[in-house]
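Reagents: none. Just compute today. phosphoenolpyruvate--protein phosphotransferase.
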Amino acid sequence: MRGAHGGSGVLLRRLREVMAASISPQERLDRLVVLIAGNLVAEVCSVYVLREDGSLELYATEGLNREAVHLTTMRAGEGLVGLIAREAEPLALSDAQNHPAFSYRPETGEEIYRSFLGVPILRGGAVMGVLVIQNRASRLYSEEEIETLQTTAMIMAEMIAAGGLKSLAAPGASIGLDRPIHGIGVSLADGVGLGHAVLHEPRVAITNLIAENPAAEVQRLEAAIAQMRASIDELIERGDVAHIGEHRDVLETFRMFAHDQGWLRRMREVVLTGLTAEAAVERVQSDTRAKMLRQTDPYLRERLHDLDDLANRLLRTLVGKANGVAREELPENAILIARSMGPAALLDYDRAHLRGLVLEEGGPTSHIAIVARALGIPAVGEIVNATALIQSGDAVIVDGQAGEVQIRPQPDVENAYKDKARLRARKQEQYRKLKSQPAVTKDGVPIVLQINAGLLVDLPNLDATAAAGIGLFRTELQFMVAEHMPTTAEQQALYAAVLEQAQGRPVTFRTLDIGGDKVLPYMERIEEENPALGWRAIRIGLDRPRLLRAQVRALLRAGSGRDMKIMLPMIATVDEFQRARTIVRREQAMLEKQGHVPPLSLQLGVMVEVPSLLFELPEIVREADFLSIGTNDLMQFLFAADRENKRVADRFDPLGVGALRALRSIVEAAAEAKCPITVCGEMGGKPLETMVLIGLGYRAFSMSAASIGPVKAMLRALDAGKLAERLDWMLAAGEGSTNLRPQLAAFATEFKVPV
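Predicted 3D structure written out:
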C-alpha cells in the first residue's frame, strides 16, 4: 500500500470521482474494484452482494474470471466469503487455501491466489455484502490495509443502501436491502397491527462521507466529543435526570464511556483514513452494532449498547439533528420502532395513529409492555437489530399474539395478515356480544372477572368489558411515567379519579411495587446481584416508611366515604404484613384525628407471590382481609427460573403437577378461613390456564381488558364440576409426565371448551 493515511485519502477521492460519474452501475462497480486493487497493490479485488435469499453473489471483480460475475454465489456461511458475512468481522489470511472454511470455485480461477483479505460491507450493523482482495504470493496484510478496505466497504454500503445496484439483480435474485424479513421475538401485547414504520430515534442520514480536509474533520470530531461530554456532565451536575427519562447511573456510565480512549482513538483513526467526522462515527458505530448482535454475554451487550447510544449522540451533534421524532407529525397507521422505550415516551405519541410497537429489547413483564397492553397497541419485543433492519416508511406487520414481526412483507403475506386481522375483529365482535351475558360456567358456577389497570387510560375498559371492577391497580405506573416523585396531593388526585370512574365497582390498589427491574428515573439505583430477590416492593416501604406512609395517606384521603381495598406486594412473612398493617392503621388514626372523613370500609390484603408464604397459609388467611395471587412472580420463584431469561423462562410449566398443587393449597386454605382470593397474574388471563384455576376452586380473576372476552367465552362453555373431578384424579395419580398441559388441553377439546 502507498504510504500511510495519505494513500487511503487518494483512494477515497478517486472513489468519489467514480461515484459521481455518469456511468452504468456495473461500469461503476468495475471501475471501483480496479481502483481498490491498484491502491492496495492487490492482484484481485472482488465485491460480493447479499441477496434476498441470504446468499452472496459476485457482482464485480478485477483479477478473477469476469465470466463468473453474477454466476458465482455462496450460500450463507459457505466459504471464506460466507464466513465473513456470518461473523461480520474482517479476515486476513496469508495461506487462504489451507483455511478450513475455504471453498474452491473453479469458474473464478482463484486457485492461484494464496493471500486473502476480506471485510464485511456493513450498514447499521447489518451485513450487506463482502469486499475482498487477494494476492498470488503469501502476504501478511497490515492493519492499515484492513482499515482502508473497511473504509472503502462503508462507501459501498451506502451505494447499495441507496439502491444503486438494484438494476443489476437478475429476476428472483434481488439484493437483500429490501428483502422481506420475518422477525421472531416475544409477545408484549396482543393484537395484529399493519402499518408503516416510524423510528422512535431516526437514524441520522450521512450524506457527506469523504473528507476534503482530514485535519479539519479531526477538529470537528474533537469538538463534538467535548460537547457531548459537557452535556452529560451538566445533566449529572444539575440533577435534572428525570427530564430526559434516563437514570443517573446510566449517565454516569455514559460519562465513563465518553472518556473511553480506545473508542475515541478508533474514531480518530477512521477520520484519518479520509472520512468525514460523522462518517467515521457511523463506521465505528456499525462495527460496534455488528459485534453487539453476535455477543451472548449480557454485560458486554449492555456495554456495547452504551457505545451505540453515545455514537447516536455524537452523530446528532455533528449533523445538527435533535433527538427523537416529532410526535405531532405521526402519520396514520404508524408502527413505532425503537431499541427500547420507557412508558412515558410511549404515552407521548398519539394513540389514534399508532397501530403497533416493535422493540429490540423489553420482555412481557416490562413497564413498556404493561402500558402497551393498557393502550391496546399490539407489541413485540426482542426483535434483534430492528432499528437497523427497518427503514422509516417500511411496511411492517406486528403480530402481538404470536410474537412475530413481518418487515416489508410480500403481498401474499400481507393479505394473509389482513385476513387474520379481520378474523380477529369478528372474534372481538363475538366477545362484545358476550358483554351483557353473566360470567357463569355451564354448570352454574359464578365467576368474577375484573381488569388490571395502572393509568387513567385503562379506566374506559371497565365499561367496554362490563368488568366487575379493578382487581389490581398498579400504583407504581404513575411514579414511572412522572418526571419527579409524585406528591401526596398528586397521588390522591389519581386515586380519587380512579374511584370516581369506577362508579362504585371495587378497586384494589396495590402499594408501590418498585425496585428490581422497576427503577424510578429520579431515584438512586441500587446495584444488586439478584434484583428480583432484592430490595423491592414492601421491603422498600418498610425500610423507608415515609414513602409508604405518604402513599397510604393519599389512598385513605381519596377513599373518604368510599370502600377502600389496599394490597401489599412481595410479602414474604406474616410479620411483614403485620408491620405494614400497623403503618396503615396509624395513618388512618391520624387522619381521623385531624377530622378527615375515613373510608366507608378498609380492607387490607396480601399479594401471594413469595413461596415462603405458602408455609404460613393458616396464619396469613386469618390476618389478611383478602389474598391475591401474583402468578408471574410466584411461578418465577417457585421454579427458580427468571421469567426474563430465554434459556429458562419456558423450561417449567405452571400447568405442571408441582405448581398446581401449590396453587390448590392456597385456595383451599383461603376457603377454609373464608378469606376472599383473586388471581391477578398472567395465568388468570389465559383461557386454558384460567380454566384449570377454576377447576382448582378459584372464582375471581383480574386480567388485561383484552382477555375478558376470551376468558368469558371459555368459562360459559365449561362444566367446572367435571373439570374438578378430572383435576383431582390427575393431581392424585402421580404417574407419567408431571406436565398436565396436554391432558388439560385434551379435556378442553373433548368438552368443546374454547381455549
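The chain has a mean pLDDT of 86.
Action item: order primers for follow-up constructs.
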